[in-house]
């Protein structure tokens, strides 16, 4: 039987969440930090632990069938791969940033200036699209210190909280690319049954993460109004309680909808509201 290979980051920001996602898909494997490859005992899959920069090319060249990597890395390496699923973690933005004190006001002010980045390909395209002619200085790490050292007038780097920019006297000056971790595969192999099964497992885990199982009690006369406040996957289950005229309502709803509706639910007569996590939702 065919065995798939999935490449994930060996260590770094995406490692833990990638391992957690695969484990939540019911895959059983050892997360040995020292090994490059780990077999999955209950699915025809091997996990390759790699540097994130190598993952897109490994997938493009067929050394791995699948990969989990940030979109920023995929765009920078300019590979031809299929985007199979956005994964909702590793969210960040590649931003331009400039010193707090300086004369740069508009994008056009970057003409003739030097911009330090580890993303020369993405930045080059962005500058071209915006008709800016600036010098790109490619630096592999600690890009944020280059304006302070006089190496560049601006930078283009990954930002998540903005703390690194702040502590280096820099401020964001425009977004170049939004990114999150994605599942990628080889072009043309998207319909492979094993790949499809894995995608479905991942989707069921992601769906469950955003959703809660809610149980609440209410008087039967209030059920219709409460139902309108619970936009679930299907209509809620309503079961009678031992006490005459009372019911329990069970439903599955997006967490974000729940928090905005809790006061309305209470006003409509909902009591004893219990919210529970869901492990998987298979449609
Ligand atoms: O060793 P390997 O090559 O595998 O890892 P790496 O060091 O190249 O990457 P790593 O582990 O730092 O990041 C992996 C991926 O996480 C990136 O490619 C992004 O897709 C994503 N990601 C999410 C981030 C961040 N958030 C992030 N904050 N990658 C980097 N940063 C860095 C950024 O470069 C800057 O130095 O964090 C700093 C900014 O953070 P804030 O919170 O201060 O804004
Ligand atoms: Zn890297």
Could you characterize what this model shows?
The chain has 283 residues and is of the alpha/beta class. The protein folds into three domains: 4-89 and 180-190, D-Maltodextrin-Binding Protein, domain 2, CATH 3.40.190; 92-178, Periplasmic binding protein-like II (D-Maltodextrin-Binding Protein, domain 2, 3-Layer(aba) Sandwich), CATH 3.40.190.10; 211-276, Alpha-Beta Plaits (2-Layer Sandwich), CATH 3.30.70.120. It has helices spanning 15-24, 55-60, 71-77, 120-129, 163-167, 193-209, 223-228, 255-267; strands spanning 4-9, 37-39, 45-50, 66-70, 81-86, 92-99, 114-117, 135-138, 154-159, 170-179, 181-186, 211-219, 237-240, 246-254, 271-277. Strands 2-3-1-4-11-5 form a six-stranded mixed beta sheet. Strands 8-7-9-6-10 form a five-stranded mixed beta sheet. The structure holds phosphoribosyl ATP and zinc ion. Phosphoribosyl ATP binds next to helix 3, strand 9 and helix 5.
Summarize the structure.
With 283 residues, this protein is an alpha/beta fold. Helices cover 26% and strands 33% of the residues.
Total beta-strand segments? 15
Find the CATH superfamily of the largest domain.
Periplasmic binding protein-like II
Widest beta sheet: strand line-up:
2-3-1-4-11-5
Bound molecules: phosphoribosyl ATP, zinc ion
Unreliable runs, pLDDT <50, ≥5 residues?
Answer: none
Question: Sheet with the most strands?
Answer: 6 strands, mixed
- Average pLDDT score: 95
The CATH architecture assignment of the largest domain turns out to be 3-Layer(aba) Sandwich
Q: What is the alpha-carbon Rg in Å?
A: 24 Å
- The fold-level CATH name of the largest domain is D-Maltodextrin-Binding Protein, domain 2
Amino- and carboxy-terminal Cα gap: 27 Å
Number of helices: 8
Query: What fraction of residues sit in β-strands?
Result: 25-35%
Helix content: 25-40%
Name of the CATH first level of the largest domain: Alpha Beta
Task: Please indicate the count of domains.
Answer: 3
Derived from helix and strand composition plus strand pairing, the structural class reads alpha/beta
Tell me, briefly, the overall form: flat
